[in-house]
Amino acid sequence: MIPPPFDYHAPRSIGEAIGLLSQLGEEAKLLAGGHSLLPMMKLRIAQPGALIDLNRIADLRGIREQGGRIRIGAMTTENDLMTSKLLQERVPLLPEAARQIADPQVRNRGTIGGDIAHGDPANDHPAIAMALDATFVLQGPAGERQIEAVDFFRGTFETALGANEILTAILIKPFEQGTGYAYQKLKRKTGDWATAAAAVVLRMQRGKVADIRIGLTNVAPTAVRARAAEAALAGQPLTDVAIGRAADIVRGLCDPAEDLRGDVEYKTAMAAEMTTRAIRDAAARCAS
User: Which CATH number do you get for residue 230?
Assistant: First the structure.
């Protein structure tokens, strides 16, 4: 199908984009990579009166270290995440996870900010951001504010973004020496969304879990930070029994929607399995 008519705007600055959002109101939608919005427009599920294309705003791109954290512009593409030497050295989970997202064509156009701001629990970056303890930078007419990833997602396609706000950057602390990490993703075929996936960041000290963060993809109305499973592992050796206990807790956290990728029971079981695999992979990368 062909989408209904709409106005097109291509601002050159964040301020100009925010001004257009304020001026155009609910009729306007932000355009990042377009992989979610444009298909919805073609199906006429979404019918915005105007598109505000963020692709010409240079300040929304790039990866740099600033104030002890890695700052990633919201319009940075998946391919840029994969090839960033800074991320490969300081936050290697992100380049590794980006390789599992969609296909080369999508990765060359799709953006980390668009993936997050869409609020789709099937998207990969929300759960990864939770496991990374990321902070999101939002900017609107009242200025800039920051919000933790775990507080950003309110429901399926619902986020903490205000009507006139733009997600401008993602802030992440670099990994400490010896940090293990993994993103385990089950999907039917290359380019598909996850049936279930788990992101894990782990530090061991003297044979016990010193810190662990677990994010779950596509197993609930939003991405899930599995804090109860983390708490069960904290301070414990990573035995088969301990990992099994954490996997059982993950099963109890799941509330997936049934679809062509599986029923509720299957998705729940696969969430536990992906968590188990991710914990083991992260542990293998740890230097205690």
Answer: 3.30.390.50
Residue 1 pLDDT greater than 70, yes or no: no
Q: What average pLDDT does the segment 211-225 reach?
A: 98
Single pTM value for the model:
0.95
Phi, psi of 249 (to 5 degrees): -65, -40
Expressed as residue numbers, the domain containing 79 is: 61-172
Q: Which residues make Cβ contacts (< 8 Å) with residue 35, sequence separation at least 6?
A: 102, 106, 109, 110, 114
With 60 as the cut, is the pLDDT of residue 288 above it?
no
- 157 and 211, same domain (yes or no): no
Tokens representing 148 are 């933790």
Residue 229 has pLDDT above 60, yes or no: yes
Residue 1 lies in a domain: no
Residue 118 domain-assigned (yes or no)? yes
Interhelix angle for 264-285 vs 240-253, to 10°? 140
Burial (0-12, 13-18, 19+ Cβ within 10 Å), 251: middle
Number of domains in the chain: 3
From 122, 139, 172, give the residue that closes a domain. 172
Percent helix, strand, coil in the chain, to 5, is: 35, 25, 35
3-state secondary structure of 165: coil
- Our CA angle for 53, 170, 148, nearest 5°, is 120
